[in-house]
Amino acid sequence: MNRILLVRHGSTDHNRAGLMRGWTDDPLSALGRRQAALTAAALMGQEPTAAGVFCSTLPRAVETAQILAQALALPVLPRDDLRELNLGDMEGQTEQALWDYYLRQAAPEPGHAGPRDVVFPGGESIAGFMHRTRAALADIGARHAGAVLVVSHGVQTMLALGLWLEPDVTRWPAYRVDNCSLTEVAFEPAPRLVRLNDTRHLRGADRPAGGPAADTGLASG
């Protein structure tokens, strides 16, 4: 691939509450479906994407991808390796609580050059998640020469950007993205960030037809 467009899934009720869900099933809320429809409209007329809409197999990502794919007349291409980080027993906690846990567990010990690997209790190791994400995107990129559209998750998008663009893991939170935001990376051949967390197309998503404005739902999760 020469370009990748990363879309985080639409908002869910737990996203609006600021809770991280990992592998827990969490369907889109009405707001999330409106966000996906606005994202689909924003993507129409842009550079064609290869093959179809790649997505995580978690329901919130599949539903978002289906809305985009229908508008773009593309097939949905789900992949298990695009699923979010499995947080195990810590699913349902806040983003800050999980980040604090990671930093505590990853703190380097005397005599060690770098941070230790972290395993979320009952879930996935960061090393395993990094390997899975890197391998998934490399496989997609190797199979398709043009632009690629991927619908996945907040932590996975942040991690992918960090792997491509920032060797210092403590700076990766700068790549945090909101629901249904657009993030684009060009490969020339080195990765170059074209846009990050673009949510301009979502203006008005918080206003149901005929109803008052509501929470935007662009929270973590």
Word description of this protein:
The chain has six helices and six strands. It has one domain (3-108, 115-202): Phosphoglycerate mutase-like (Rossmann fold, 3-Layer(aba) Sandwich). By secondary structure, the chain is α/β, with parallel strands linked by helices. Helix 2 runs parallel beside helix 3. The radius of gyration is 17 Å and the shape is globular. Strands 3-2-4-1-5-6 form a six-stranded mixed beta sheet, sandwiched between helices. The protein is 33% helix and 17% strand. Mean pLDDT is 86; it is low at 210-221. The relative contact order is 0.23.
Give the gist of this structure.
The protein is α/β, with parallel strands linked by helices.
Give the arrangement of secondary structure elements:
Blueprint: E1 3-8, H1 13-16, H2 30-43, E2 49-56, H3 59-72, E3 76-79, H4 95-106, H5 126-143, E4 147-152, H6 154-165, E5 182-187, E6 191-198
Parallel strand pairs: 1-4, 2-3, 2-4
Antiparallel strand pairs: 1-5, 5-6
CATH class: Alpha Beta
The CATH architecture name reads: 3-Layer(aba) Sandwich
The major sheet is characterized as: 6 strands, mixed
What is the count of DSSP helices, taking H or I runs of 4+ residues?
A: 6
Strand element count:
6
> Order of helices and strands, N to C?
EHHEHEHHEHEE
Shape by Cα distribution: globular
The percentage of residues in β strands lies in 15-25%
Key features?
single chain; 221 residues; Rossmann fold; disordered C terminus
